[in-house]
Each structure stands twice: as structure tokens, then as C-alpha cells.
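Collaborator request, handled under Task 6.
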Amino acid sequence: MSVTLRIASWNINSVRARLDLVARFLKEYAPDVLCLQEIKAANGDFPAAFFAEHGYTHMQLRGQRMHHGVAILSRVELTEADSHDWQGNDEARHVGATLPGGIRLENVYIPAGGDIPDARLNPKFGQKLDYYDRMTRWSEKLRRPTILLGDFNIAPLPCDVWNHKHMLKVVSHTPVEVEKMEQLRQSHGWVDLGRVAIPAPERQFTWWSYRAKDWQVTDRGLRLDHIWLSPELAGTHIDYQVLEDVRGWDKPSDHAPIIASFNW
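C-alpha cells returned to the collaborator:
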């Protein structure tokens, strides 16, 4: 029996503040599974009834008050839920579950890393690098077909940022971060679906700063949000999109959702 699922990932930047946007998104794009990052709500404060009313009755939450938090909302059954503390300080940055067909789905919100790209001067940057190291050790041991997605907070390729030369010294595109991300990718042979579907050097951004009111005109974007696949899932996608129009909705997140359909 084949399974076809449409899966979306979105750093929502406070789910309770953007329920109107989420309702519109669910109506217009109708994913089977929605993975949210930065929900900014503890489990008990999460709007579970809202999602249930929209048909997303299967939920796996790793919430946190005010900051961080991740969630998987699904119209199909989820099993074997778990959460890893790759941050090493109990921040709510990962939740995983098994999809129909036995495919693992891992939803992550990797730390941004602060403003200074030096772990000696900026502990947050060191925490980000450590997070990648812990994920890499986990990834090396994977034996199940897995979809790893979410806000990775690194734009790895020169064409993943609006200006490669300018961004080399800016957190999210520094060489040390890109190297850590590549180590993670190689540890499992992950397939970067975003660059399979939209090959480099074609433009592809998922984030634009709130500081630029004319974000579409200046287009100073970064590709921070990703969908990675285990090697055995390569070729199982039917489509993939960055939904830039959502970034232009009223009171949006600074991230655009990414969405893909799969058949396995």
C-alpha cells in the first residue's frame, strides 16, 4: 500500500498571535501534517481545540512558555513520539513522531546563535555549534528512513543568502556554521530537498527580516528553513514549494512556510 502525504514546516513566531494566519494557511494549502517552530506556548496553553476543529486531531507538542517550542499537528495518526534535548539545557527545540508507512518525522528549531559569531565572546553561538554536534552524533546512528525538517538557522550555500560576501561574517552564514551543517548532512547522507527541487544557484529564500518594511523590494532573504531526507527517501517527493506569499499576509511571521508532498 502506498502512502501520500503533504507536509509543511513553518516557524510561526508565536502560534497564538497568528491563529488567523494559520486558519487561512490550513484552508488554502491543506497539509496533512503541519510542523511548527517557535510556538512560544507551554503545552497547556497551546490552542489544541483550534487545531482539532480544523481536523488536526493528532498532536505532538514540546511547548515552552514565551520562547522556543515545537509542535507536530496531523490529520493522520502519529506514533512513537519523543523529544531530544540537543540544546543541553532543556529548551523545547525538538519533537519527533512516526508517520504512516513507518517514516520518522523530526521537527527541529535550532538556536539562532546570537549576534556575534565567536563562541568565546558569545555563549549563544557556542550553544548553536554544540547543538549541531549533538545532532550529528544522533544522525550517525540513524537506521530508519527519516524526514528532518524545521528552522535550521543556517543558510549554507552562497546562493542561499542575498549577498554572500556581506553575510560571511554574519551569524547564519559564517564558514564555521556552514561546516557544522555540512558535517551533519554527511553524517547520514541527508538529501537537501530544497536544492533538489530548486537547484542551485537559483534563488530560494525562506526568511526576511522584520526590519525591512519593503522586504519584497529589497529581497534581503536567507534560506534558513529546510527539509532533509534520508537517502532511501530520495525521489519520493512529488512537489516542493516555498510559500513566499504567506510572508506578505497581515501580521506575518518573518519566515515563509515550506511545503512538500511525498509518496512512499
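The cover message to the collaborator said: "Residues 7-263 form a domain with the Deoxyribonuclease I; Chain A fold (CATH 3.60.10.10). The mean pLDDT is 97. Please let us know whether this matches your experimental observations."
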